[in-house]
């Protein structure tokens, strides 16, 4: 039996009279790469925002079970607490610290793993120094894993576009998530960058013990990467299944893929 790590039950997000997300039911199993697709304005990013604490869903619940034990309801929790429980995300629009170095961007991702506290920061005791050295080492190792180490001291804003996208993923990985949410990771990439991204996402899943949920409009990438696909339209789930099922589903063709 597959290990269920995320279960979204009857979740809705209402803004005034608009049901941006309408009674969504989603289940994700450990080790999967899952895609969420649909037209612009379908509610996909709002769904991500509900999972990560940016919004508290109006109805329904979000439950995580990262270790196979008892499930934990996370909707209503702050984004930093949800991140600390193991959900990390990237954004549709790149949100790097542009005037900080590539290494510093990743180190910020590891900040909440530190345990030294205010007193340790003031006294700079041995434990604090050891923690900082470990953050430095671990951050550099993450950059090596996704082939960004050559940019380690460059300012984030000076990276090529595709490398900036990968750096956002590296910063999310730095929080040690069990579930990595990628919001349009291939947006704006050229074909070679997209090909490299596919290889990288597969590598992360296979080697870093992370499950992937992604929003993406590049259907070639979606069909290549995903084992399971959810399709939204006007806030509602209109289809769910394997890539072959989805690309031949009449409702999906009509709403999104086209003839």
What structural keywords apply?
single chain; 10 helices; 2 domains; 259 residues; 10 strands; alpha/beta; globular; Rossmann fold; 38% helix
Describe this structure in words.
The chain is α/β, with parallel strands linked by helices and 259 residues long. The chain folds into two domains: 1-86 and 176-259, P-loop containing nucleotide triphosphate hydrolases (Rossmann fold), CATH 3.40.50; 97-174, no CATH class. The chain has ten helices and ten strands. Strand 7 (179-183), helix 7 and strand 8 form a beta-alpha-beta unit. Helix 3 packs across helix 5 (126-145) and helix 3 (102-109) runs parallel beside helix 6 (161-173). The longest helix has 20 residues, at 126-145. It is globular, with a radius of gyration of 19 Å. The model has no long low-confidence stretch (mean pLDDT 90).
